[in-house]
Design brief:
Layout (H helix, E strand, L loop, with lengths): L6 E9 L1 E4 H6 L5 H7 L3 E4 L5 H16 L6 E7 L11 H8 L6 E5 L5 H14 L6 E8 L20 E8 L5 E10 L26 H12 L3 H24 L8 E3 L10 H7 L8 H4 L9 H11 L8 E8 L3 E9 L11
Length: 349
Amino acid sequence: MRWNDIYISAAAASLGRRETTADAVADGRYDPEENEASGYHAVRVSDEGPAVELAVRAANLALQRCGKSGDEFELLAHASIAHQGLDDFAVASYLHRRTVGGKATALEIRQASNGGLAAVELAAAYLATRQGPSSALLTTADRFVPPVFERFRMAGGLLLGDGGTALVLSRDRGVARLLSSVAIGDSTYEGLQIGNEPWSDYPGANGWPVDGQARVEGFVAQHGAEIFPELVQSIWRNETETMERALADAGLGTDDITWWVFPNMGEALTDWDSRKAFGVDVSRTTWDWGRRAGHLGAGDQFAGLAYLLESRKVRAGDRVLLNGAGTGFSFASAVVEIIEEPEWSNSAD
């Protein structure tokens, strides 16, 4: 979808402290061969909850940066993966009262790691139907903490980082313009997220921590080893489709993209050769930042964009492509054009 007059007014993050993978290897929490293959240098670790408060902090910083009042907002959308602080409570409403207030619609998005970009697609469509100035606050937050998650062992090739992120979309002004976005779904291989684990009646009934690697292995055992290369190819085809369509809708080619923001997945899970063939130069991606943050659940793209703006790595006129994918599977890409170079302090690094 090509968008007209949809802007990014602000981006911000609230991340946990940095913990190096070298320390995790030294005390036996992280396998040294896994560390070598994945290429991470550090992850972000939040020592205090609830997770939703990370989103509150990021959101209020974003609101401060954009200078908008609460009554300008018509939508608040929050995306997450992990426990937000309590069972059975309205997370979006909690955020609503502590951020924009007013009469904005508050909702949650559960699309795994693709939740942030899914929120962009939905919010842009929502704002496009409004007359006159209107805005949407998009947030993410996750803490991957024991006993539910063992961040250094949950899944091969992937390290989990803690943090909250926020993005403000608006109809009237911003530091960047949303040129296009595309979201698609393909549930052919959704069983990968389940494997052979039995259904349960309540959280934790199958025991903690969540063992994502065991689910992957269970899925492969059910379908045979040949299913895995098929799965990898399917993921790449869908990721490529969203990027191609987003570029086409924006009227751009790969050479027109200055920076690429991909999920903070480890090198063992990233097909850099295919990305290079597509036109992606790793030096123009946020991987050097992402390898020091870990996979921030649904928030890699918001935090990555905040990092580019805060570190002044982008200039007016630069185009940035944001790409995301979530288990199940869902895929999305968005293209933005930088309009202004804000003087923001670091929140994502």
